Amino acid sequence: MKKVTPKDIFVGWKTVTVNSKLDRTTTKKNEKQQELQELERALQLAKKTEGDLMMDMVRMETETKQLRARLGNIRAKIEAQKVPEIREIIVSVGNSLKSMGDVALKNVETIINEIEQSPDPVKFTQMYFIEHMEKSSSKLDAHIEREAKMERAEKKERKSGGRSQANLDEVEILPNAFIASLIDISFRKFRKEPSLSKRFSILMKKFVLPKACRTNTESFRSEISQDDVQVVYKRHSNNLRKLFSYYAAQSAKAEKKAMKERGEKFVKDTGNEAGINLDSWIRMLRDTKLITRPGDMRHDFPEDNARKVFINVQMSAGDEDDNEEIKSSQSSGDESMIYLEFLEAVAAVACYKYVNPYTPLSTRLETFFKEQLLEVGLKVIKQRKR
Predict the structure, then answer these.
(1) Same domain, 179 and 114
(2) Residue 277's beta-bridge partner residues?
(3) Which of 29-33, 86-90, 230-234, 296-300 has the highest mean pLDDT?
(4) CA distances from 357 to 92, 120, 125 (A)
(5) Cβ–Cβ contacts within 10 Å for residue 240, how many?
(6) According to the model, what pLDDT value does residue 333 have?
(7) By the 8 A CB rule, do 182 and 200 touch?
(8) pLDDT at 280 over 60
(9) Which long-range contacts (CB under 8 A, 24 or more apart) does 59-65 make?
(10) First CA to last CA distance, the chain
């Protein structure tokens, strides 16, 4: 066995010490490497965050430029709309309204009656917007396009059972919008006049006020005499005649009973055509549920309008000035409505129920006969004859 010398002891101690230091150095190196990796990941995350912030800043700068551009356009539009003659227009509108008020106060009853009998203002304003269609095409093309649209709408309505079409009959226009429409019309119609107030005054004095609140009896009678409307009358002539004959007979019975109560002898006049009196007319409209009340969901045909229709169908051209005398005679029950007047009256009721001006009268009349008047009226007659 070899003898251990001090040199061997020193070499062994040195080896152990060096190995221990080497282990500690390796451990510290690994720790530093981990710290370096964490710092690299933090640096990458910081760079990514910096990129996102730069993108956000660029986007915000772009949006700011766009908003400033829009603001400038809005300011320019506002400045362009500042017309110096706006005050004159307002004064002209006020004077026109004052003139209309003075006329109304002098003839309150006549104006009220004419207003109720005048066409719906919605028709007047909607007709104006046809100009937008005529700008892009000729009048004939616009007419053909409207006819095609109405035909497509009718086909769609027939396929869906008549329930999918939007109800345009309840569209209303507010007073401010009506006045704005008149101003716009005057601006477009009288382009040669330099003053806007002058344009509006010409429209009101020459076109609106002289013709406002006037009945259009002859125009309506001309419309119902068209071939397409007469075809509808002919198609339903048998049922219309049944309905008329039933309520005409009711009128004759009521007249006979009234004469008997007065002690007068009833003599049947074979020379005069049968007719429906006012009471039987109102009764027919109530039986068919056409007369509405203020509490109804759609109050479009009150009893007063039914009485006015009865009066107007018996007015000939030139009778408008004698309207009060006709009303007094109607209220006494001396007048009756013959069959031709009955046809005009049901067409007038159809216009109250279906007021869309873009739907032809023949289409409105056909729908009115099928869905409201004849179907319900004939059922009522059948039940009462049992």
Answers:
(1) yes
(2) 336
(3) 230-234
(4) 30, 9, 11
(5) 20
(6) 44
(7) yes
(8) yes
(9) none
(10) 146
Boundaries of domain holding 259: 220-384
pTM above 0.85, yes or no: no
What's the one-letter identity of residue 185? Answer: I
Tens-place pLDDT, residues 142-190:
555 666 666 776 676 666 654 444 454 455 677 788 888 888 888 888 8
How far, in Å, CA of 272 to CA of 276, rounded?
A: 12
Residue that finishes a domain, picked among 82, 110, 129: 82
Q: Using CA atoms, how far apart are residues 261 and 182, in angstroms rounded to an integer?
A: 57
Q: What is the pLDDT of residues 57-93, one digit of tens each?
A: 888 988 998 999 988 888 887 776 655 566 677 777 7
Residues contacting residue 9 through CB under 8 Å, at least 6 positions apart:
none
Look-up of token digits 């010490």: 17
Q: Do 230 and 348 belong to one domain?
A: yes
Distance in angstroms (rounded) separating the CA atoms of residues 200 and 179: 10
Cβ pair 311, 330 in contact under 8 A: yes
Strand partners, 336: 277
Look at residue 241 and tell me whether its pLDDT is greater than 90: yes
Q: How confident is the model at residue 321 (pLDDT cuts 50, 70, 90)?
A: very low
Measured between alpha carbons, how far is 315 from 324 in angstroms, rounded to an integer? 12
Residue 323 has pLDDT above 70, yes or no: no
Q: What is the pLDDT of residue 309?
A: 92
Query: Which domain-ending residue is among 150, 181, 214?
Result: 214
Which residues have CB under 8 Å from 223's CB, separation 6+? Answer: 229, 361
Q: What is the spatial distance between Cα 380 and Cα 359, in angstroms, rounded to a whole number?
A: 29
57 and 110 in a single domain? The answer is no
Contact (Cβ atoms closer than 8 angstroms) between residue 198 and residue 90: no
> Average of pLDDT values for 361-377?
92
List phi, psi (to 5°) of 357.
-70, -15
Residue 257 one-letter amino acid: K
For the record, the structure tokens of 359 come out as 């739907």
Tokens 């251990």 correspond to 4
Q: Please, what is the average pLDDT of the chain?
A: 78
Judge whether 206 and 232 are in contact, CB under 8 Å: no
Looking at the structure, do residues 133 and 157 belong to the same domain, yes or no?
yes
Q: Which DSSP helix (H) or strand (E) runs through 261?
A: helix 237-261
